[in-house]
Amino acid sequence: MTLTMFTLNAFYGLALAMNMFIIASGLNLIFGVLRVINFAHGMFYMFGAYIIFTVTKTWGAPFLVGVLASAAGLAVIALAIERLLLKNLYDKEHLMQLLFTFAIVLLMSDAAKMIWGTDQYSVGYPPGLGGAINLGFVLLPQYQLFLCVVGPLIAIAMWLLVDRTRWGRIVRAATQDREMLSALGVNVPMVYAAVFTMGSALAGIGGALAAPRVALVPGMDATIINECFIIVIIGGLGNLWGSFLGALAFGFVVQFGTVLAPNWQDVLPYLLMLAVLIVRPWGLLGRPEAGR
Amino acid sequence: MKISAIIVAAGALGAGTAFAQQPVKIGGMYPLTGGGAVYGVPAMAGHQLAIEELNAKGGILGRKIESIERDDKLNPSAASSTMKELITKDKVDIVLGGLSSAVGLAMSEVSKQEKVVYIATIPKTIQMTTDKLHKYVFRTASNTDFEGDTMSLLAGRYKLSKLCNLQLDYAYGNDLEAGIVKTLGKNAPNAKIVLTLKPKLGATDFNPFIPQVMAAGCDGVLSGLWGPHFVSWVKQAKPLGFFDKIKWISGGEIASHEIAGELKGDFPDNVISNTYELWYHAQDPSHKEFQARLAKKLNTQETPQWALLGYVGVMYAAAAMEKAKSTEADKVSAALEGLTIKTPVGPLTIDPKSHQANMGQFWGPMVKKPDRAYRMMDPVEYIQPK
After folding, report:
1. Domain that holds residue B265
2. Would you call A109 exposed, middle or buried from its count of C-beta atoms within 10 A (0-12, 13-18, 19+)?
3. Same domain, yes or no: B182 and B70
4. pLDDT tens digits, residue range B103-154?
5. What is the DSSP string of B249-260?
6. Does B245 touch chain A (CB under 8 A)?
7. Do B349 and B377 lie in a common domain?
8. Which of A132, A215, A265 lies closest to B231 in CB terms?
9. Which domains does chain A have, with CATH numbers?
10. How far is A60 from chain B (nearest CA, A)?
11. Substitution target from B72, B200, B207, B238 for chain A, most A beta carbons within 10 A
12. pLDDT of residue B3
């Protein structure tokens, strides 16, 4: 592998990692606080992509407005789902929650078919990000560079919010003992609703930011949800920097692995997950769940 | 004795008339949900259009046609069980459809077991009409051998020498590659494949592959990336100037208006590809009429190519039943062998040995037009197997 190829692959690995982190971070947040495995997260991602398509292509709004619209759209959908339905399932077993989120997947995929039909769509790159930057020995696509900046920004923003604010302290407390928190006078259901809304809005942002790079088709939710789960599991369920690390591992393994061993491209992410789980069954930065 | 004989006769008579009034049941299976719906839904629209037209003229053999439509889910095992149900529960006389080559092979297997005729209207894998051929399976779509032959022919015509071969790693991609390799020496003796890459079916991230193709120094790519795969490749490769120096010769119908109309200004230069149908190009007046009827049904002038395939499948089923004067599978199968019918894109004949219709495709470069937002094929060439 020449220096040019190595640089390109390393860069692409990083870009893939950041793209995946943006999508997976919301799933991770929701699991960390609500302990709900949200199967519908991939569908939220798809809706994010479709919403930015409608807002930018059909209505002609600028790209940034489209991203915000995707986030807002998913926030509204998620809030409705949480307040009307999901809130009744927190005390139920995991299987019920899984079945519930799976039902949401089916409902939303039919809804998407009714709203957008089954055509294939694409979203253009935002102006100024559709080309490549020439470093002399290698060309780097601008949009992927942009993702490499946005990913860490989102990670830092989430960290500040959860680790450095009063609201974040309440959220962290909710993950540890919600009965006690409730007894102290905190409105726990509202905390849960806010977290579910925020995590889902992140899926919307993830879909909107992925949209210029990929074809928008029904079914684009299916693979992404598996990949998000792999990242979250590798990193340690519920751990923010864990899923950041998990995304990096995923990005580099998939990029370099597919170049070096193309016949293994299907199983590479799963092999990575297996390898991590054998060494650290609770994920890279997760903690063993004692006494639960 | 006498009375019972009368009762039996009356019963038989009753059954006879009831039978005569029974509709001909045609089972149609396309992916109607998930990723394949992009193609399956318009194919089903063509299927329905054909049945509506036939019913308006009195159906098949004077009997009405009942259309039973199912989602094949783009999944071979789901398609198998759905098709079995169509045959055993709904008692269909014939099954049409399929899209993915993997689904086509699975449906062909059911047709063999259940002894019901299956006409593959979209799946292209050559195996269906060679190794896995049997009495009840027929194909009205093109196939990977013919598509590969045309692609290598174009490589020769554009005087390409260093080729990159880019195929999806499943039945269609592997068989298309075989079709190309088989004919490359004959059609393009100066061309050599220097790099073969096989992304997985459903891949959305092509960054591991794009730099390799660019580093290989190919002057042409022979590609089988269809639909969303092509779109994602374009979105990721175009910022690097990928399409500036490379001729992209592609199967997989990416010259269809569905792709060109959606990608618009993002559709890259130097693409030469195929499509079954072009709404802005008609072979003859009857083709134009078909396009107008389809446009009315779908409520758009810019109709998708896939409808033609669904339409032709039904027309073949109807013609075979009329010729056989029966809906019995064995008789219909015999009638299909060597059967020639008129279709919107000209007359087609099913080869009695391979059960393959000589369906052709429109091929040509995708060029910018001053008064259009999207690219169009120009010049258009209809290439059909002899």
Report:
1. 145-275+362-383
2. buried
3. no
4. 999 999 999 999 999 999 999 999 999 999 999 999 999 999 999 999 999 9
5. EE-TTTTSHHHH
6. no
7. no
8. A215
9. 3-279 (1.10.3470)
10. 15
11. B207
12. 54
For residue B377, report the phi and psi dihedrals to the nearest 5 degrees. -75, 130
List the CATH number of the domain containing B320: 3.40.50.2300
Contact B100, B36 (CB under 8 A): yes
Confidence (pTM): 0.89
For residue B313, pLDDT over 60 is answered with yes
Task: Please count the CA atoms within 13 angstroms of the CA of B53 that sit on its side-chain side.
Answer: 16
Q: Is B262 on the interface with A (CB under 8 A)?
A: yes
Contact B262 A120 (CB under 8 A): yes
Amino acid identity at A253: V
- Residue A202, helix vs strand vs coil: helix
Min distance B242 CA to chain A CA atoms (Å) = 11
Cβ neighbours of residue B384 closer than 8 Å, sequence gap 6 or more:
B346, B358, B359, B360, B361
Which among B353, B233, B301, B78 has a CA at the least distance from the CA of A122?
Answer: B233
Q: What does the pLDDT look like over B341-357, one tens digit per residue? A: 999 999 999 999 999 99
pLDDT along chain A (292 residues), means of 10: 87 95 94 91 97 95 97 97 92 89 94 90 93 89 95 95 92 86 90 95 96 91 92 92 96 95 91 94 82 44
How confident is the model over B161-205, as pLDDT tens digits?
999 999 999 889 999 999 999 999 999 999 999 999 999 988 999
CA distance A235 to chain B (A): 22
Question: Which chain B residue's Cα is nearest to A139?
Answer: B240
CA dist., res. B213 & res. B385, Å (int): 31
Q: Do B211 and A142 touch (CB under 8 A)?
A: no
How large is the average pLDDT for residues B357-362?
96
* B 320-359 residues inside an 8 A Cβ radius of A: none
- Residue B293 has which token pair? 């009827």
Q: What is the DSSP letter of A210?
A: H
B-chain residue closest to A258, CA distance: B208
Q: Does B103 reside within a domain? A: yes
Chain B CB contacts of A254 below 8 Å: 205, 208
Is the CB of B302 inside 8 Å of chain A's CB atoms? no
Q: Cβ of B71 under 8 Å from any chain A Cβ? A: no
**CB pair distance less than 8 Å for A122 and B231:** yes
Number of domains observed in the structure of chain B: 2
Is any Cβ of chain B less than 8 angstroms from the Cβ of A213? yes
Shortest Cα–Cα distance, A205 to chain B (Å): 18
Å between B73 CA and nearest CA of chain A? 11
- The residue-averaged pLDDT of B215-233 equals 94
Sequential DSSP letters for B40-65: HHHHHHHHHHHHHHHHHTT-BTTB-E
